[in-house]
Design goal:
FAD/NAD(P)-binding domain; FAD/NAD-bd_sf; Glycerol-3-phosphate dehydrogenase subunit B; oxidoreductase; alpha/beta; flavoprotein; 2 domains; seven-stranded mixed β-sheet; G3P_DH_GlpB_su
Length: 419
Amino acid sequence: MVRDDVVVVGGGLAGMTAALAAARDGASVRLLSHTENTLRQASGLIDVLGYTPDGVGPLPDPFDALSALPDAHPYTAVGEGGVRDALALFDDVTGATYEGGHTARNALVPTFGGRVKPTARYPASTAAGLASREADALLVGFESLPDFDAPLAADRLAAAGVPFDARGVTVSFPGDLRADAAVTRYARALDADEETDDAPARAALATAVAAHLDGESRVGFPAILGDEHAADVRATLEGVLAVDVFEIPTAPPSLPGLRLEDTFHDALRDAGVTIETGNPVVGFDATDDRLTAVHVDHLGTERAYGADAVVLATGGLIGKGVETDRAGVREPIFDCHVPAPDDRYDWFRDDAFGDHPFARFGVRTDDALRPLDETGTVEFENLYAAGSVLGGYDFAAEKSGSGVSLATGYAAGRGAANE
């Protein structure tokens, strides 16, 4: 049986952070990921806390509100210091590709829907678009990319009271892309600067946009401006247009999320983490309240991986790390207790945008992030949980999902490494 110091189950932001933190603490680490990384569906923004659980916000400084969070909130277990340490790890991993580390305050980043989102870290590609800047902006959408309606987004930004004039236009993307082309196809065309009928793709795009400029000093595009050479694409457009160029996070699949995934995978490989994907964890071995191994289904054959400690980072209801049926709510791998009302009608509110209890479903833990059973006893002494598998918070309403994933992943990884 293969054995490691730490096995991390789940390959999202929480799992990758846990694996990296454990490896940097000297542990041998294996990361097991069954499905595609959830960063592919995320904006790439790192939100610590945008709104309080009571809906107060957007918060200028997320750290000012941490001490008032409920006891059940994951941030209460890791503390302010734990959040700051996790952000320091993130800053080290991402380097110049992300901004926001110079201040504890939230930035306001425009989204593809024309809203502004409070966030603590943001891709460098979005920096010129911050809503706090007073420079007028031209938003550019593409006829073949209906998910981003630039005129509508500009109107909504204006209605939100941003301190600049925003205007939106729709142009044709250069080249002959199919109407159903994935966003990665747009990125590849700009990465390679593919030839079109008129000019290379970057120059052709700049020419199409230049015709619509009317004194704006910055131009925003949906986040499709390259993948492997995104900085070069943006620099070329800025050079031709003589304006600042920024990306606007869009609906999934997310290129900023994919870029962040690649960055973390590079860091994990550099740290010596073994990464296995595509095979689900289907069982475990335990002795005297301690896990000794997890079992993976590999093409119909079970393989056991021994570990001194395990980190559970499989996601919440959306990621299937927490499941529901008529019998109740459960965590499906280690059968950890998930608190929930017995009556299913108490899981939600009649108001579609109300304070739904199901949004806070997840395992409850002690201060070391070890899951607790129904009586409040630790389930397994060497099992730690991180990310959206945790209960006690509504990451969508609070705008805290990636921050919780980082902070709890960091704490869980270090705890596991020191078993």
